[in-house]
Amino acid sequence: GVGHPKTLKPQDPSHLQSTRVAVTEAELIDQIQAGDKAACAQCVEMHAPAVYRLALRMMGDPDEAEDVMQETFLSAFRAIESFEGRSGLATWLFRIANNVALMRLRKRQPLFVSIDMQGGEGDGAEMTPVQLFDWCCLPEADFATAEAHSELERAIAELAPALRAVFVLRELEGLSTEETAQALALTPANVKVRLHRARLWLRERLAGYFTELAREEAHG
User: How far apart are CA 97 and CA 95, in angstroms?
Assistant: First the structure.
């Protein structure tokens, strides 16, 4: 038989790059703006997992998260001509997804208040729990068990939406303060304040759980 030409083997990307696969984000955006369906599919493949993770944590429901994700990409592709590249594509998609999620949450809760002052207006000092753990962020080692991880997820789901979005992007998706600020249309200072409040609230929310866990381990 004739067989496939060697130049089309998967391990030789040069042919694919020249016809379909975008090499850089700028090229991908150019192709999407030109109406290239393959570029749109590539964009979805690259960014859908992270967008879905944010949507799921914001909505708390897989079906609604799927709807948010689909609406995010549809909105993004409709508005791609206006994308100026001041932030990365992922950051822009996070911004759209957060806005879509917040709009849906407001419809679900008509009295939903967009204020993020969970726990009050202060700087967080008055929120310091009695049982204080010496962790500034999340104690990753303590979340090794499925039970502890589920407890963390429940606590994140109880955060005010504005705090939840900051916490998810900064701590779980690994965005920088600046990237998170761009994604959520905040100042870097606001991101830091919201992250601080989210950490304090989660620490207080989880303090009882970890105290009980430590007690069980001590007597085990």
Answer: 5
